[in-house]
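Dear colleague,

Thank you for sharing your sequence with our group. We've completed the structure prediction you requested, and as agreed, I am returning the results in plain text so they can be pasted directly into your records. Please verify that the sequence below matches your submission; if there's any discrepancy, let me know and we will rerun it promptly.
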Amino acid sequence: MTFGTWQFIKSQDGSGFPSTAPGDALINLIYAVKPQYRVGPNVGWQMNSATAGAIRKMKDGQGNYLWQEAMMQGEPALLCGYPVWLNEDMPDIGSNALPIAFGNWRAAYLIVDRIGTRIVRDPYTKPGWLRLYISKRVGGAPADSRAVKFLKITT
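Please find the predicted C-alpha coordinates below.
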Protein backbone atom coordinates (compact mmCIF):
# COMPACT_ATOMS: atom_id res chain seq x y z
CA MET A 1 0.00 0.00 0.00
CA THR A 2 1.08 3.55 -0.56
CA PHE A 3 2.41 5.92 2.05
CA GLY A 4 -0.32 8.11 3.53
CA THR A 5 -3.00 5.42 3.34
CA TRP A 6 -3.97 3.59 6.53
CA GLN A 7 -3.23 -0.09 6.06
CA PHE A 8 -5.06 -3.15 7.35
CA ILE A 9 -4.87 -6.91 7.38
CA LYS A 10 -7.91 -9.17 7.09
CA SER A 11 -9.23 -11.37 9.90
CA GLN A 12 -10.51 -14.04 7.49
CA ASP A 13 -13.76 -14.41 9.44
CA GLY A 14 -16.81 -12.18 8.99
CA SER A 15 -18.14 -12.78 12.48
CA GLY A 16 -14.94 -11.62 14.14
CA PHE A 17 -12.25 -14.18 14.83
CA PRO A 18 -11.90 -17.82 13.76
CA SER A 19 -13.08 -20.35 16.37
CA THR A 20 -9.78 -22.22 16.13
CA ALA A 21 -6.69 -20.18 17.07
CA PRO A 22 -8.46 -16.79 17.25
CA GLY A 23 -5.30 -15.09 18.54
CA ASP A 24 -3.48 -15.78 15.27
CA ALA A 25 -5.11 -12.70 13.73
CA LEU A 26 -3.63 -10.57 16.52
CA ILE A 27 -0.18 -12.05 16.05
CA ASN A 28 -0.44 -11.47 12.29
CA LEU A 29 -1.33 -7.85 13.02
CA ILE A 30 1.75 -7.40 15.23
CA TYR A 31 4.09 -8.72 12.57
CA ALA A 32 2.41 -6.76 9.76
CA VAL A 33 3.98 -3.67 11.36
CA LYS A 34 7.64 -3.13 10.39
CA PRO A 35 10.20 -3.99 13.13
CA GLN A 36 11.24 -0.38 13.78
CA TYR A 37 7.63 0.44 14.71
CA ARG A 38 7.22 -2.52 17.11
CA VAL A 39 9.60 -1.23 19.79
CA GLY A 40 9.37 1.65 22.22
CA PRO A 41 7.06 3.06 24.88
CA ASN A 42 4.42 4.28 22.39
CA VAL A 43 3.72 0.89 20.83
CA GLY A 44 0.45 -0.82 21.67
CA TRP A 45 -3.14 -1.69 20.88
CA GLN A 46 -6.25 0.46 20.59
CA MET A 47 -9.78 -0.92 20.74
CA ASN A 48 -13.08 -0.13 22.42
CA SER A 49 -14.42 -1.80 25.57
CA ALA A 50 -16.73 -4.21 23.72
CA THR A 51 -13.86 -5.45 21.58
CA ALA A 52 -11.59 -5.68 24.63
CA GLY A 53 -14.23 -7.86 26.33
CA ALA A 54 -14.16 -10.30 23.39
CA ILE A 55 -10.35 -10.31 23.13
CA ARG A 56 -9.91 -10.80 26.86
CA LYS A 57 -11.49 -14.28 26.59
CA MET A 58 -9.00 -15.55 23.97
CA LYS A 59 -6.57 -18.30 24.97
CA ASP A 60 -3.46 -19.83 23.43
CA GLY A 61 -3.01 -23.55 22.69
CA GLN A 62 -2.08 -24.28 26.32
CA GLY A 63 -5.20 -22.59 27.72
CA ASN A 64 -3.40 -19.40 28.85
CA TYR A 65 -5.15 -16.10 28.29
CA LEU A 66 -3.52 -13.78 25.74
CA TRP A 67 -4.71 -10.78 27.78
CA GLN A 68 -2.74 -10.10 30.98
CA GLU A 69 -4.02 -7.68 33.57
CA ALA A 70 -1.62 -5.03 34.82
CA MET A 71 0.46 -5.95 37.86
CA MET A 72 0.38 -2.40 39.27
CA GLN A 73 -2.41 0.14 39.45
CA GLY A 74 -2.18 2.76 36.73
CA GLU A 75 -0.39 0.45 34.30
CA PRO A 76 -2.17 -0.72 31.12
CA ALA A 77 -3.17 -4.34 30.56
CA LEU A 78 -0.98 -6.32 28.15
CA LEU A 79 -2.07 -8.23 25.06
CA CYS A 80 0.63 -10.40 23.50
CA GLY A 81 3.15 -8.40 25.54
CA TYR A 82 2.02 -4.94 24.36
CA PRO A 83 -0.11 -2.40 26.28
CA VAL A 84 -3.80 -1.95 25.50
CA TRP A 85 -5.37 1.51 25.46
CA LEU A 86 -9.15 1.65 25.37
CA ASN A 87 -10.51 4.07 22.80
CA GLU A 88 -14.30 4.22 22.71
CA ASP A 89 -14.18 5.89 19.27
CA MET A 90 -13.05 2.60 17.73
CA PRO A 91 -15.88 0.54 16.14
CA ASP A 92 -17.26 -2.72 17.52
CA ILE A 93 -16.36 -6.06 15.94
CA GLY A 94 -18.52 -6.43 12.84
CA SER A 95 -18.36 -7.11 9.14
CA ASN A 96 -16.01 -4.72 7.28
CA ALA A 97 -15.15 -2.88 10.53
CA LEU A 98 -11.65 -1.91 11.71
CA PRO A 99 -12.07 -2.60 15.45
CA ILE A 100 -8.44 -3.14 16.46
CA ALA A 101 -5.32 -1.11 15.73
CA PHE A 102 -1.71 -1.87 16.61
CA GLY A 103 1.45 0.15 16.18
CA ASN A 104 3.62 3.05 17.26
CA TRP A 105 1.24 5.90 17.96
CA ARG A 106 3.86 8.61 18.37
CA ALA A 107 5.27 7.84 14.91
CA ALA A 108 1.83 7.49 13.32
CA TYR A 109 0.11 10.67 14.47
CA LEU A 110 1.33 14.20 15.09
CA ILE A 111 -0.42 16.62 17.45
CA VAL A 112 0.33 20.27 16.77
CA ASP A 113 -0.16 22.70 19.65
CA ARG A 114 0.35 26.38 18.86
CA ILE A 115 2.00 28.23 21.72
CA GLY A 116 -0.15 30.77 23.52
CA THR A 117 -3.81 31.62 23.74
CA ARG A 118 -5.71 34.44 22.11
CA ILE A 119 -7.97 36.68 24.20
CA VAL A 120 -10.35 39.16 22.57
CA ARG A 121 -12.60 41.53 24.50
CA ASP A 122 -16.12 42.01 23.18
CA PRO A 123 -16.64 45.81 22.78
CA TYR A 124 -20.40 45.46 22.26
CA THR A 125 -21.27 43.81 25.57
CA LYS A 126 -23.84 45.47 27.83
CA PRO A 127 -22.24 48.31 29.89
CA GLY A 128 -20.96 47.04 33.22
CA TRP A 129 -20.42 43.57 31.82
CA LEU A 130 -17.25 42.06 30.43
CA ARG A 131 -17.20 39.29 27.85
CA LEU A 132 -13.96 37.69 26.68
CA TYR A 133 -13.43 35.26 23.84
CA ILE A 134 -10.53 32.91 24.50
CA SER A 135 -9.17 30.53 21.90
CA LYS A 136 -6.26 28.15 21.46
CA ARG A 137 -5.22 26.43 18.27
CA VAL A 138 -4.56 22.70 18.42
CA GLY A 139 -4.58 20.27 15.55
CA GLY A 140 -3.35 16.91 14.44
CA ALA A 141 -2.74 14.80 11.39
CA PRO A 142 -1.40 11.40 10.39
CA ALA A 143 2.39 11.53 10.24
CA ASP A 144 3.45 8.02 9.13
CA SER A 145 0.74 5.62 8.00
CA ARG A 146 3.20 2.71 8.02
CA ALA A 147 3.54 2.88 11.84
CA VAL A 148 0.02 1.52 12.56
CA LYS A 149 -2.00 -1.32 11.08
CA PHE A 150 -5.69 -2.09 11.56
CA LEU A 151 -7.45 -5.46 11.72
CA LYS A 152 -10.34 -5.59 9.23
CA ILE A 153 -13.14 -8.04 9.92
CA THR A 154 -13.82 -9.60 6.52
CA THR A 155 -16.50 -11.89 5.24
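Summary note from our side: Residues 7-110+142-152 form a domain with the hypothetical protein PF0899 fold fold (CATH 3.30.2320.10).

Kind regards,
the structure core
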